[in-house]
Amino acid sequence: MSVPNKSIAIYFHVHLVSDSTGETLVAMMKASTAQFRNATALEHLHALVRSESQMLKTLDDIEAKPGVVLYTLVNEERRKMLENHCAKLNIPAISILDPTLSMLGRYLGAAMISEVGAQRTLDAEYYNRIEALDYAMAHDDGQNVTGLNSADIILLGISRTSKTPTSIYLANRGYKTGNIPLVPNAPLPIILDNFDKPFIVGLVAAPDRIVQIREQRLVGLRQNQQTDYTDADRVRDEMREAKRMFVRKGYKVIDVTRKSIEETSAQIINAYQQSGRETR
Fold first, then answer.
1. Per DSSP, which regions of 82-122 are E strands?
2. pLDDT band at 6 (very low <50, low <70, confident <90, very high)
3. How would residue 109 be classed by pLDDT, with cut points 50, 70 and 90?
4. Structurally, how many domains does the chain consist of?
5. Of 17, 119, 189, 244, whose CA is between 20 and 30 Å from 130?
6. Which residue range forms the structural domain that includes residue 146?
7. Helix, strand, or coil (residue 183)
8. What is the mean pLDDT of residues 204-228?
9. Is residue 4 part of a domain?
């Protein structure tokens, strides 16, 4: 039997499904994957899943990018939808709080209250974060560009520069964040030049790293053909043009190569505050 090469990097999709903010899932996922040195989780946070339509969209995303599913869902109907769909696709799924809740229930001799987000105090900060999460999901991947005038932060970057997960993380910190993908031969929306309030950040990364992540994404989608999307020369051109545009526009530039979402977000928050915007 051959021994696996321990130096080979492994990328895999992790779907975090919650009817609350998903912070518990993010913390658990980070702590768990840290124990696997060569494994990198491609995180997909599905927060505030509180309706059947939201769950159906989540299930479509899971099917399109199969991997591992971690969830915290109070609603029994939506739990069953998720569990049955994952079982049908042979995708491992685990409710991370069930063992702890079961143990506490047996020890205390009491039933849990089954209240979404019961651990959170419903104060102004909490509602700001919920609003920011709703905003991030409504303004993800170039959606509702005109509405981005009210954003705290706008992220720009070519495909696979971690725009969406960074937006969600910043939203969890209370910052209304939107993001716009840079697509080859497609101009940036002119309306951005008229925005005064948002802090605009350009995300960049080493082209080789982008190619690696894109190739892994195609593997996850079961699409193995060579395309411009993963062509090294094309990716270098994309990144070069993005950097030139960021400098020309005077946007803050942050290199996300080998950075965690937390590290990137911390840099963005520091730059946001240093820019003179209102601090939180």
1. 93-95
2. low
3. confident
4. 2
5. 189
6. 124-274
7. coil
8. 87
9. no
Q: Are 174 and 250 in the same domain?
A: yes
pLDDT, residue 1, reads 40
User: Does some domain include residue 214?
Assistant: yes
> At residue 218, does pLDDT exceed 70?
yes
Domain assignment of residue 119, yes or no = no
The answer to whether 162 and 261 are in contact (CB under 8 A) is: yes
- State residue 23's pLDDT score: 82
> 126 vs 35, which has greater pLDDT?
35
The backbone region for 53, taken as left when phi is positive above 0, alpha when psi lies in -120 to 50, beta otherwise, is alpha
CB atoms within 10 A of CB 65: 16
Of the three residues 108, 143, 173, the one that is the final residue of a domain is: 108
89 assigned to some structural domain: yes
| Distance from C-alpha of 247 to C-alpha of 179, rounded to nearest angstrom | 18
Give the CATH number for residue 57: 3.40.50.2300
Tokens representing residue 62 in the block: 């899971």
Residue for token pair 């994957």? 33
Q: Which two tokens stand for residue 221?
A: 């989608």
